[in-house]
Prior knowledge:
CATH superfamily of one domain: L1 transposable element, RRM domain
Low-confidence stretches: 258-293, 308-313
InterPro entries: FP_C
Radius of gyration: 45 Å
Strand order of the largest sheet: 2-3-1-4
Order of helices and strands: HEHEEHEHEEEHHH
CATH class of one domain: Alpha Beta
Mean pLDDT: 79
Protein name: FP protein C-terminal domain-containing protein
CATH architecture of one domain: 2-Layer Sandwich
Number of strands: 7
Strand content: 5-15%
Distance between the termini: 143 Å
Pfam families: Baculo_FP_2nd
Organism: Rhodnius prolixus
Number of helices: 7
Amino acid sequence: MGDSDKFEKLFEQLGCINNTLISFQQQFNALKAENQSLSNNITSLKSDIKADINTLRNDLKILNVKNVKLHKQQILFDEKISHLNSKMREYEQVSHANRVRLTNIPCSDEENIFSVIKTIGDFIECSVTEADFDFLYRLKVNRSLQSPPIIIKFVRKELKIKFFNLFWAKRELVNTNLFSDNKTISPMRIYISEDLGRKTYRLFRRGKELQREGKIKSIWTRQGRIFIKKEEGSQPTLVRNEEVLTKYRCDSIVDLGECSSLATGEDETETDELLLSQESRKASKKRKIKKMPSLEGWCASVLSVHGLSVIGL
């Protein structure tokens, strides 16, 4: 092979290499253009995301402001609702202002409730007449309590307070021996307490739960209002609503070794069901259960119609 042939072949190879380089250059330019397009898209996307983030931040600030405003409004509404509930409870208790509840008084079939109250009144030196009462009635008898409390409502509040205070002064001496000719050595005490409305009683019961848990020292009622003491010697707190009791739930437990009972002398043996039914004045009617005839009696009645008997059959 001559030198001319070698050069010609070399030129051919150089031409192939040049074509390959040109192809690579074209592909590189295409990739560069595509990369530039992607870069532009990413830049545009970043701008859009940044704008969206700024918009979201502004919206979040607006929502936070609205949320704070709504939270304040909710607090105001809660306070108004609590205030209205307190007013409703107070208005309900007004109808109970002249009422008292007497418990542990023995029950009889033909009892005269006025005579019972008069006997107690004479003993505590507070004379009463039938005209002094708006009504007197005993709550319905149930299985858990055979001698339900007696509810009495005085016409005048002054007489109710006088009767209550005189009873309270002799509370250790007022017992079931007053109504029995056969005196016993250990008679049952008769208790007096204010007759609370449903809402007031429920609030009072929640306070009693705190007392049992050791969160408060004592709880009592006075003229339909509920008072509590955190510790012995502390100032009494008037309980107008449940919010007053809520702050005591997380407090430390107090010593209940000398925990006082109800200042009104309410008998704690009364059941919740009984106390919640204090509005009821009508005695429950006993259901009459009609006896179903026995199978033998039914067969005998059917056979007698046809002139037959069970033995004959």
